[in-house]
Amino acid sequence: MEIVEVVRAGGKPFKRAYVSIFLWFTGRAIQAAAKVDEQVRREFNSLPDDFTFSLGVLPDGPWMVIGREKGQVKYLGGDPEGRHLHVRLAMKNIETAFLILSFRESTALATARNRLITEGEVPQALAMIRVMDIVEVYLLPKMIARLAVKRYPSWTPGRKFFGRIGIYSRAMLGI
């Protein structure tokens, strides 16, 4: 019997950098949205107080970790190692992550095509997907956000405008 050499795929540095930056900014935007948007706040209030969520790419990252501590939603960085995670959403590879995060494939379609792995309670995972959809509507222009979310919400212009300003400024400043 012959031993076969394992060949690993190329690093794909552009896609990895794009996904890393996207997850970093989205993590900070979720933290900001929990302070700005009432609907996001309600979603987090329905979760346990020590709730921790991660979204990332298999096999070795990048990752985004969000936690709720003492009623505050925090972006906890990009390292899920050593943390107790209530919900973990993992995209199967960097190609899948790039498809989803460049809005060429919606979360619902990616789930139907078995590109996402969910570990944890399904209602909590769905709550986090709803939060990410709300944040994407705030962060993205309507034309792109329609591709990213299942149903584009009919918000008042004031909610979208002032929410967008609040989320972008808090995410950039990290508050």
Write the layout of secondary structure elements.
Blueprint: H1 13-36, H2 38-45, E1 52-57, E2 63-69, E3 72-75, E4 87-91, H3 94-101, H4 107-112, E5 116-120, H5 122-139, H6 142-148, H7 157-173
Parallel strand pairs: 1-4
Antiparallel strand pairs: 1-2, 2-3, 4-5
Helix pairs in contact: 1-2, 1-3, 1-5, 1-7, 2-5, 5-6, 5-7
State the end-to-end CA separation. 59 Å
CATH superfamily: SCP2 sterol-binding domain
Low-pLDDT residue spans: none
The overall pLDDT, averaged over residues, is: 88
- CATH-derived topology: Nonspecific Lipid-transfer Protein, Chain A
The level-1 CATH class:
Alpha Beta
What is the 3D form? globular
The helix content, as a percent range, equals 40-55%
Give me the strand/helix succession. HHEEEEHHEHHH
Helix tally equals: 7
What does the model show?
The chain has a 5-stranded mixed β-sheet. It is α+β, with helices and mostly antiparallel strands and 175 residues long. Helix 1 (13-36) crosses helix 2 (38-45). The protein has helices at 13-36, 38-45, 94-101, 107-112, 122-139, 142-148, 157-173, and strands at residues 52-57, 63-69, 72-75, 87-91, 116-120. The radius of gyration is 17 Å and the shape is globular. The termini are far apart. The longest helix is centred in the first third of the chain and has 24 residues, at 13-36. It has a single domain (13-173), classed as Nonspecific Lipid-transfer Protein, Chain A (2-Layer Sandwich).
